[in-house]
Amino acid sequence: MTSVRPADLWKGVLVAATTPFGPDLTVDREAWRAHVRWMVESGASGVVVAGSLGEGSTLTPSEKLDLTRDATTAAGRRAPVIGAVAATRTSDAVELARGFADAGAHGLLVLPPYVYRGDARETAEHFREVFRATDLPCMLYNNPIAYGTDVLPDQVLELAEDEPTLTAVKESSGDVRRVTALKAVLGERIEVSVGLDDAILEGVAAGASGWVAGLANAFPEESVDLFGLARRGAAEPARELYRWFLPLLRLDTRPKFVQLIKQVQTEMGHGPSRVRPPRRELAGEELAQVRLLVAEAIRSHPDLAKRGRRSSSGH
Q: Which CATH code is given to the segment(s) 6-236?
């Protein structure tokens, strides 16, 4: 069990970890353990398993639980492991939540149902059943852009008043004012994390205490540095690093964010770009654009230029 206190579970940089696949598209568990170790050694506060960026919709329940067990082994007592709960049926989400708990997860990131876009009552009931499935602390994932359901601050408050396991919100509406609104309604009873990479500086300024980060899969040290500068109020160094990072961070908000971020990892020598169908690896102009972005990031960042491209075999 990690030594992180429950109150601190959602603070800092939680990496929405990508899932590495071998040539036959099975999960490469050795590469996965190495990736988790690298994230934690680079300063990440925790690792999210089988989320949207981790291609959770293409993973079987048993694969998700294996990834969780491997992640807890790789992270040891240094950082918590968070299981992403997503399913088309509420009963499947409940079963997965219990499976994550049995596999050693320290918390749950709970998504709204896939496919069906319920109304406010239906969505709330789905969340309630998952929150009550285990004693693990839960983070509600609000992403109306991707999932078509928008959980408003007052609705989060209503859930939090009844569900003691609800302790955090991942806010990905794209409107940074939501962070302000959540803090105004909920105060300190709920931690708020930024869920979009290109809103991190604004989100922290509005009161967010965590970041569920995507580009951290390729640039964990830079992500941790950026978050730390923002939280400490080091405005100018934070803005300077943010300006350098933004072209890459914006990849997290595009429809092919999985392929894009995995390709950035590959360009930096940190794992294969393989994805499971129906996704396909980047090609043509899209691939060329990512390569140019990474080349410019290396050229314009003195520390990166000195370090060069480290091989993932060294992690």
A: 3.20.20.70
